[in-house]
Amino acid sequence: MKLHFLLLLFFVFCATEEVELPTSLGKVTGLVTTVAGEGVLEFRGIPYAKPPVGKLRFAKPEPYGEFPSSGLIATEFGEFCAQSLGILQGGEDCLFLNIYSPQTPSNKSVMLWIHGGGFAFGKSNDFNGAILAASENVVVVTINYRLNIFGFLTTGDDKLPGNYGLWDQRLAIQWVKDNIKDYGGNSSEITIFGESAGARSVGFQLVSPRNSQTLFQRAIMQSGSALASSYINRDPVEVASTVTESLGCPLNAENLIDCLRSKSVSQLQKASNSVARALPFFPTIDNDFLKHDLGLALSNFTSDNSMARTTNVFSDFGNYDILSGWNNQEGLIYMNTLLTVSEEMTGRNLSEGVSEEVLLEALRQWPFINYPVDQQPKEIVVRLLKDYFSSTAEILASENLSIEKKRVEIYSQIAGDLVLKIPGVQSLQVHSATGKEGNAYAYEFTHRRSAYGAAWYDGPNWLRYGADHTDEIPYVFGTPIESGDLIFTDEEIQLSRDMMKMWSSFAKTGNPGEEFNQFEFPRNQTYTVLNTEQFERKTYPLNDVQRLWSAVDSAILQTEVVDVPFGSTESDEKYKYKYLDGMLELTPEEANKVMTVLLILCILFGLVSVAAICCFIIWRWKCAKNAAQMSVNNK
After folding, report:
1. Of 240, 274, 291, which one is at a domain's C-terminal end?
2. Could you tell me the CA-to-CA distances from 100 to 122, 143, 154, 185 in Å, in that order?
3. Is 196 noted as a catalytic residue in this protein?
4. Range ranked top by mean pLDDT from 174-178, 430-434, 576-580
5. How many other C-beta atoms can be found within 10 angstroms of the C-beta atom of residue 215?
6. Which end of the chain, N or C, is surrounded by fewer C-beta atoms within 10 Å?
7. At what angle do helices 356-365 and 335-346 cross, to 10 degrees?
8. pTM to 2 decimals?
């Protein structure tokens, strides 16, 4: 996963003085900073929950309550949640949030940011909301939540139910709902937004039966969706047993939780790191915060448009206003997986491409890591993907690439589409199909950053031409406007201003602006391309590829259909048709029948029209003849 850690360095602030604010929870001291020529009140490290230590480790968070009687000093960021990127960082006492509020009259719309990081790393401190707040007159909130083993360890039952990180997020949103009025915000106009795992978190909050529109009203999902099957832990026992046994806490032990709570943060993090690549810690279906496997629900929707079940599973999802989008080269972030596999299997990097064996092994490791199937169905899916992309030349950046290099691009395309792009499109489709009141808008970000973006990229230069995963974040937070020593072009500065306006307009009104049309399924699936050149409206995003992914998800989540033999063109076509045409609502046979009926109706309409015209001409001729006869008689 790509880091966000240097984003804070992109801002130039001048802290002028401290400010004391009376609130319903007690006195709080923050800072007055000057950003983009505007004054912003900044409150850092506000605790929204009790420290999740001792009996609260591996448990739902509890509200922090009132501030100390002497007041809360909120001029420094709080600790971020324990994580490891080579070395242990952060700690357990980490459930803090930060508030950025313009020095303007109160009742401002609120934008609450949930950071990404694969549910394994990240922190709120890396995303300073001051420029967005000052430029667009909104209150911006950023939050921490528990990660990796601390946030998502589960045994799949009541012993360790999991999803603690999602519960942290919900409590933070509730805190904002209850208290943001004290900081100039409107508690009835809250938008939650996030990127990557943060966007998936937003999606989980949208579909959780524990939430409603009284808690928040709108959502923005950047490069992520709760519908991404790769980010659901469907085998929690395997993950939990591997970790707990390495800690000397057998899974079936009566004192399992006490044993785990007796371990140090570093011991738990070390155990987490030992399995993170093969068995990552992700949200799970706990029958509490999440009651349905959204991947299976989506499979039902795409295969037979089962609206009754889909509406039941997705609850009030369609009644929220949503803005969802993706970057055009999302898959570049996963190139490290392909690079690692290539180095392990062949000792080569990616500069000259990879073999077929390397491509298939990398696909098995990611993005098919969390699919509950044995090796044979995976092989079927991989072959389907390989055959499809081998015959789809238009997706490739250059026809001059060797087959070895094309495999590198194929991997990037598959990983980005399956994990990040297609789930975003599917979220929009389900929202539109099940919604009653909510608006839906879509975007694609395509600008390749002129500054620091390439530093995060591990792949070959010949592959990169557009926007990688996370590339849009600086423009949303206004980085180019006050970028310190970094250099952005005038066009990039304007793009940032435009995107901040779109995001904040959506937060205020549910509409990002005139550059967008509403996304409507299935007839008007429109999205807006965002870059420095022009804002172009397009339709039916990733349509052909998306239907393939519907087939793939159905094949690996509904294992009874993977027994179809792959040896003849006929069987392949029958297998794919069952799932590829779900989003189009018609099978090929039905489409042929409909077209035949329409053709017959058109012919009949034409004949009737011709007959009507002939009758009209005859009637006019008779009228003219009668008029002429009457004229002669009158004379």
Report:
1. 291
2. 19, 12, 35, 10
3. yes
4. 174-178
5. 17
6. C
7. 130
8. 0.83
Known active-site residue 330: yes
- Over pLDDT 70: what percentage of the chain? 78
- For residue range 206-255, list pLDDT tens digits in order: 999 999 999 999 999 999 999 887 788 888 888 899 899 999 999 988 89
Q: Which of 412, 469, 505, 554 is catalytic?
A: 469
Distance between CA atoms of residues 507 and 474, nearest Å: 18
177: domain CATH number? 3.40.50.1820
Cα separation, 34 vs 16, whole angstroms: 7
Helices (H), 225-264: 236-246, 256-261
Q: Is residue 520 part of a domain?
A: no
Q: Is 422 domain-assigned?
A: no
Answer whether 286's CB lies under 8 Å from 154's CB: yes
Rounded Cα distance, 494 and 534, in Å = 11
Backbone phi and psi for residue 320, each to the nearest 5 degrees, phi listed first: -80, 155
Residue 104 falls within a domain, yes or no? yes
CA 560/CA 476 separation, integer angstroms: 44
Task: Give bridge partners of residue 539 from the DSSP assignment.
Answer: 526
Write down the catalytic residue from 84, 101, 196, 229: 196
Q: Which domain holds residue 599?
A: 586-635
Domain count, the chain: 2
In a domain, 388, yes or no: no
Q: Which residues of 593-624 are buried (b: 16+ CB within 10 A; e: fewer)?
A: eeeeeeeeeeeeeeeeeeeeeeeeeeeeeeee
Report the distance separating Cα 314 and Cα 211, nearest Å.
Answer: 12
> What does the longest C-alpha to C-alpha distance in the chain come to?
120
Cis peptide before 522 (omega within 30 of 0): yes
Phi, psi (deg, nearest 5) at residue 604: -60, -40
Provide the pLDDT for residue 564. 28
Report the residue count for the chain: 635
Of the candidates 195, 330, 444, 472, the residue annotated as catalytic is 330
